[in-house]
Design brief:
Layout lengths: L19 E7 L2 E6 L4 E4 L8 H25 L6 E5 L11 E7 L7 H18 L1 H6 L4 E7 L1 H4 L2
Parallel strand pairs: 5-6
Antiparallel strand pairs: 1-2, 2-3, 4-5
InterPro entries: KH_dom-like_a/b, OsmC/Ohrsf
Organism: Brachybacterium faecium (strain ATCC 43885 / DSM 4810 / JCM 11609 / LMG 19847 / NBRC 14762 / NCIMB 9860 / 6-10)
Protein name: OsmC-like protein
Amino acid sequence: MTSVPDDRFELPENVGPGSVWADRTGPRTLLGRNQRGVEIPIGHGEGEINPGELLKLALIGCAGMSSDVNLARRLGDEFPMRLWAHGTADEGENRYLTIAEEVQLPLEELTAEEIATVVKVFGRAVAAGCTVERSVVPGLEVAHRVLGAEEGQA
């Protein structure tokens, strides 16, 4: 199902694949949409996600998608993964200074050497394939940590 904005505004000239838009729905609230019909309420109220949370989700979503194929080769096609992003904006500078990413993977059955390989594979895949991080990092420090890997490393 393809979605397009209503006709309240003329479509910008450069609308194309990957374009997204947000319509104001009230004071400091928006409804973000993509061309596949997905809607995300943006704001600071119940049932809404704020822009900082969207940024963090974009980073971990990209990290997870970028590393998925390579991790599946080592952990199996149906491996569980949970990614977290933590960071609070610095009010004085009105920006995020650091966002810490953490990934949880099934490491229990792996040797220390295998865990080290998974950590390396994850980092390399994200560095090479995560367009979001590659776009953001020149101005924002993004730290990654594979949770549980610390215990397996010498």
